[in-house]
Design goal:
Number of helices of chain A: 7
Largest interface: C-D, 109 and 110 residues
Radius of gyration of chain A: 21 Å
Helix content of chain A: 10-25%
Number of strands of chain A: 18
Oligomer: homotetramer
């Protein structure tokens, strides 16, 4: 355990890279919510493989199959169970790695944990493929949040040291390459193609912003917005760093620089700057919630790498062929949105408990 | 909710800065474990206020009072309840802030969330004072981990842009100023005193390392070691960033640089580098687990700051006097150890379920 | 929420009576466990409908489809996702009840809770059909328990006031009619057929016994074996009562009658009687764990019943035709075993955390 | 684990019979709720020992000490921590039972579970003393429910086979002996005194009723009202049976007798009978929620009993002197109310999540 997330909007992700399907079961969706199937499909398509020269060639339709929880496209209060079929799995590609773990992957740690019984093909349950059902859970949360006036949107902010330095204020998901500054985007693209042609890969940073949040979401100490988002975002493979607002830069500042002064915007309390990323004491302050996730480079690279043979107990070298993304951060942009949406929606349901209501 | 952490080593933190006491209730400690009271006190003393010119002048004995769960100093299987009395609280210091929220603090967000009913004095439940019971829970976990051959230790790695660039390989907690490179330490100290004399504060970075971990701890997707540690560490006030291994630097690397090649050290599988911070796929690989937390500067500063008067609905300015740490990161070093220890011990108990055992 | 059970062996049940499938996702199964598909199928067949004149005529193959978590029939450590297709659903049968709730069913309460959005067909998520995936989760737990020397078996103990007064000491699941005293069984059968021919139904009692338990399973206060089993067994539709050991009869006894004296059986501590049903202070004492669940009569009956029209807001009457069990307790026998097995296995995994282990 | 209850109104009970104090930490109470200290004290006094010849002579003030979570008697949103000091503990009374477990008690099972490290004095964490903090958590829930128009009240329904056959429609807590039919009450009293003078004890049944519930509380399958109440009520020591509505009697009925026909009472949907105890499909139907808990006789009796000496591994006999209730069911009446209130309030908070709200 555990492939489950959430206390109120609670879901469990299942499946392996090469199992019959991957999927998710979701509890806690209110009854009477229409799921916009087209919007969900468009969202899933942003993550889906095989759509571009910058992504893996594995081709999956990723059409969600609702097994339960819907009646005429509307939630009925019962858990939602959703499947995404695995159709283009090539397990043979992975046979060589059964005893020679790929550096940077979970092959070795999974083989220790599961004493050799793990499903090694394609990374099994540790595969990036499992971000597809996360996008189903998050994509539904996105729709539900939108109905409350809350928008979640992310962008690729950096690739291998190339940064998009423009501020993210509006969604860029309509774009082919999800950046604000298109010039920077061209350089990032170049960087990815360069890595690809070298049989190598490159890391990146995804920035995410949540707009329209009321003040007061999030809970003290271990259920602050930072904790909640971290618990979801570190569930995305390859994420190794996370910061809120100015994050690590705050560690270099003085208090007089870092503190965000309160101001009035008409009747509304606001802050002049947003160094805290919209979160104070774990609770939203009504400003945009902003965070950044650091992705390591795709560990699958086709240059030779040193490893060990777990059976023969000797050192050896491998080359990982197969089909891989040269930069996971790129396709991770909607995945980060999904993780954020799930975390925010869960906090929003939590907050409802704090409001007295009239029974009738 | 929620001031609770953990699934197996589960604890709930209670108290406000100026309540009669702060404390913690812990479930899941095995029966028959001796709690070393002296070692625990030494650990708490590292965090306790009023010990140095670099820390707040608030003076608290912080002697843990075990209300339950112990019999002759040994755990009896029942929950541990521990109190730490608040003796040096000066609520009058906080009266002015009831309606003029201090920038950078939870005053405003708590007042929205609790509709004016929050205990504002000293930051209430959002105060750094609540890290004392966290240190009780973590300090006990540290002892239990030590008995399994696992050591958790942290250092102050940076203050306001001054970095300790030496590698952390051994505990530095015996030192007066917890750094590896003492020259860097002197500069950091200088930086803190400078902030203090300016009525200002400064941010910092704490690095933590866990040695002696077996491979195989941690669980897939949402219960990976990163998720578990993040859920605990973001429970420390002022933490705004977290990274594992090379963290954000991985986003600038290529895969061939970032991947840690597997090697054999005698019979033992190891890695040549440790860019991943000892975690692959959320699971420990047997190398040291390494992470860094970014702390924002103490928000309490005595220079004038802009804020709003929530009652009169007008803009105004305040000066925060009271007694404060000029750099929370310094006293946070043992707190980060405590959070890490709690997370690691929780994962270790989880792993026990995966081992078949003999009943008798 | 919540259709989830368990802390260690954790599963979520999904599906409605007439959705594409019902199913279950299970977390916490150890890697390396072979699932005996034939044994599981035999177990599911005991619950499956359409097998006898005493049960509903709805015909479902109930062949579990493992979507994930298995590799060559052996668990790989990832969550198990299992589907059971719904093939013989006749939603038209239920159209009349959309606004005229059937007495004794969840039609009315679900319509209030879900504000009219519930999936009313066949009782939706409240249908007895959902006990099929519970039997998958429990049937797997049964196999895992068996490998630890623990047996779980139940019998039909009473139907409409007719009791099987013989003691349950061995499984009766091989029998066509799961009772100990076959003479009593014939009377029960008669009672069921009588109800059926009258278009009526009848209640019953199922008794369950768990053999081979070590002493020491279960936890204090809210996680005692009684709490754990109750939380699972009340998840079976129609259960309205539950008692452990002598249960309600203990309320009529004196302490000197009720207390079970400790004795030695060779080296082993045992008790002379077992009035407590093998549980003291919530913890197993090494004797057989015994409990009884009371099932109300199937609420679906074909005699006319008074109800209200929720749309027209007037009183009216209905007759429930459709296909129904005249006595749900009969087919519930394996379901009770499943619920008990899940609860016991969850407690067993919990107990593993209390045993120190050697890492290697 | 686990001495914790609840998902929304979540509390952890701590303490042993002879520890410095027993207590409870509660999360999830809304901010701004005034705790009526006098009403809470009156409620605790109903459970407190040493008040009558029918109860143990142990004398405890049971005045709750609020360590945190309150500001001027009003909840501030932070966890409530409450202590009840143990002042009249006589551990010496229990020394003889360290190795000769008392029949019917948790002495033996706790010694197995905790490998001899349990706090045996007074039953430790398994003592009825732990129902005092449960009454704090439940007593607060009672006040919060009352503000929503919901009343929870119980009565002693049977003692050793003597039944109060009158219906419970109004609270009887003002009475000295909490029964409806005072004639029956006199017989019960007689039965208890008889047991007491014989150095014996006697079991009983407590019935509880919740009035004013809206329809729609409770959740499907494992979070139905029955599951929620069972999970709390089996947390009370000595409870061995539980039934809802007509409970075990439903197992003897036909469907046409058992089903509660729906009727209209003015505009309101109601049922003609209430055999289901106000719960259909786990969800409240707006009728009174009714359940009954069976209590075994107090296991502590002063007549000689057979047991074993765990050290010498031989059979022996003991006499339990000490101070004990001759009938735990009597003092358990408010405890059952407390458990029910906690469960109902938790379900009510859960339901709030299902109602869309306006942010402002």
């Amino acid at each position: 355990m555990s492939s489950s997330y959430g206390q109120n909007y609670r879901f469990t992700i299942f499946g392996q890279s090469h199992s019959a399907a991957v999927g998710v079961v979701i509890e806690g969706v209110l009854a009477g919510e229409r799921i916009d199937a087209e919007a969900l499909q468009r969202f899933l398509d942003r993550r889906a493989p095989g759509r571009s020269e910058l992504a893996t060639a594995r081709k999956e339709a990723d059409v969600p199959e609702f097994v339960s929880g819907l009646k005429d496209g509307v939630t009925c209060g019962a858990p939602l169970a959703v499947l995404l079929r695995n159709t283009d799995a090539r397990s043979a590609d992975y046979a060589p790695f059964a005893h020679t773990p790929r550096p940077g992957h979970a092959d070795y740690t999974a083989s220790v944990k599961y004493r050799g019984h793990q499903d090694a093909a394609g990374g099994g349950h540790f595969s990036g493929r499992l971000t597809a059902p996360l996008c189903v859970a998050g994509g539904i949360a996105l729709q539900l949040l939108q109905r409350e006036g809350i928008r979640v949107f992310a962008r690729l902010q950096a690739v291998g040291g190339v940064w998009d330095t423009c501020e993210l204020t509006e969604p860029v998901s309509e774009k082919n390459f999800p950046v604000v500054d298109e010039e920077a985007g061209r350089w990032m693209r170049e960087r990815i193609l360069m890595a690809r042609s070298a049989g190598d890969s490159v890391g990146g940073v995804v920035e995410c912003r949540v707009d329209g949040l009321p003040a007061g979401l999030g809970d003290p100490i271990f259920d602050g917005m930072e904790n909640r988002i971290a618990a979801a975002v570190f569930g995305i493979p390859a994420v190794k760093g996370l910061e809120f607002g100015e994050g690590f830069r705050l560690a270099e500042m003085s208090g007089s620089e870092a503190n965000d002064p309160f101001i009035l915007e008409g009747e509304r309390v606001s802050t002049r700057s947003n160094n805290c990323g919209g979160i104070l004491g774990g609770i939203t302050d009504g400003m945009p919630l902003v965070f950044r996730a650091a992705f390591k480079p795709t560990p699958s690279i086709s240059v030779p790498q040193d490893t060990v043979d777990l059976e023969k107990r000797c050192e050896t070298a491998i080359t990982v062929s197969g089909r891989h993304d040269p930069c996971v951060a790129l396709r991770a942009v909607p995945v980060v949105e999904a993780a954020a949406a799930a975390a925010v929606y869960d906090a929003l349901l939590e907050e409802r408990k704090n409001r007295r209501m009239e029974w009738n």
